[in-house]
Amino acid sequence: MTVTWRAKAFAYLEMARPYTLFHAGTLCLAAGLVAVGGHLSAGRAALIWLTPTVGWLAGLATSDYHDRTLDRVEKPMRPIPSGRVGEREAFWLMIGLIAAGFLGALLLGWRTFALAWLVMILGVAYARTFKAKGFLGHFDRGILAGLTVLFGSIAATGGIPPRMWWLVALFFCHDSATNLLGAVRDMEGDRAAGYQTVPVRYGVAVAASIAGALMAAWVVIGLAFAVTTQWQPLFAVLFAAAVVCDLLALLQVAAAGRAEAAPADGEARSERRVAALGAHKVLVVERLILSVAFAATVWSPVKALSLLVVLAFATWWSQIRLRDRYEFVPLVPLQGDEPASGRGRPSEEKGESRGHAGTSARTA
Q1: pTM
Q2: Distance in angstroms between the alpha carbons of the first and the last residue of the chain
Q3: In order of start, what are the domains of the chain with their CATH numbers?
Q4: How many CB atoms lie within 10 A of CB 102?
Q5: CB of 219 closer than 8 Å to CB of 243
Q6: Which of 8, 34, 63, 154 has the fewest CB atoms within 10 Å, i.e. the most exposed one?
Q7: What is the pLDDT along the chain (364 residues), one digit of tens a residue?
Q8: How far apart are CA 197 and CA 190, in angstroms?
């Protein structure tokens, strides 16, 4: 099979999932800036952002390579089963990204290098065991977010200033909640795979209620942090915007819950997935806003807004140009003239969730 360079480039873009790519690095950079009071050299700031971003890419590449056999049946349009990226090519891409992630962690210091190994272990545990265990899987994602905060702090200062524990607690609650809401999108696939996520085991309404409680917790923690530290007015604006976005996502998942209560036909399932997908589209931008809000407590408004505008635009544009092309498009045979099976495009949430299985999809 001859693959054009355009098809190859687009396949790599699909593997990178750019609409989920920037969260880990932005959170890590924000944590580093808060820890050091905003005084980071451009080179070190870039390395602190780039290292977890490469690690996230490594995790996604590992996910695609690890799931290549299953994807031949469930997702034949993915880059590896479709033949646009060869198995050997994908393997060496995975190895290269893992090595690059660990190299970045090592350049930042031996403590960050050691922490990268811890995050990788937790990421692998999530992909292989925790995701199927309900609350354990969702809270593992929160722990990984907390470790990302610690990684950024250690990379910037060599230690963990006391105020950083506010952010560890906040992003533990935040990412546990967003993972709960994101899991609603993939209920059918998780149920078929035997994954006992909270939405699968207890229903959408329970998942939304727990996510709402976690959201309330991170909002309170964020307000407490603001009271105990000096901050720029931009922080208040961005923090409020993140809260509004989270509320919108929560309302959309509640709409998915109403669809769940409807008769279990194909149309009701489709409505639930559309609502849950809409929520996830908001959340991938919201988490960038929240991270930059904390960077804005110690960084100049121009720098903070410039970073947010660039990354939020890239995230939203990639959702429109890339994600919407295949989320609900029926499968089309790659070769031959047989009609498509009619199944909708499987969710990418599982791919994102397993992104931790590489070097460390959050921290290195």
Answers
A1: 0.85
A2: 35
A3: 16-330 (1.10.357.140)
A4: 22
A5: yes
A6: 8
A7: 678 888 888 889 889 999 999 999 999 999 999 999 999 999 999 999 999 999 999 988 988 888 788 677 767 888 998 889 999 999 999 999 999 999 999 999 999 999 999 988 887 777 667 766 777 778 888 999 999 999 999 999 999 999 999 999 999 999 999 988 888 877 776 777 677 788 888 888 888 899 999 999 999 999 999 988 877 899 999 999 999 999 999 988 887 666 555 555 556 566 777 777 888 899 999 999 999 999 999 999 999 999 999 999 999 988 887 776 655 544 444 343 333 333 333 344 444 444 433 344 343 3
A8: 7
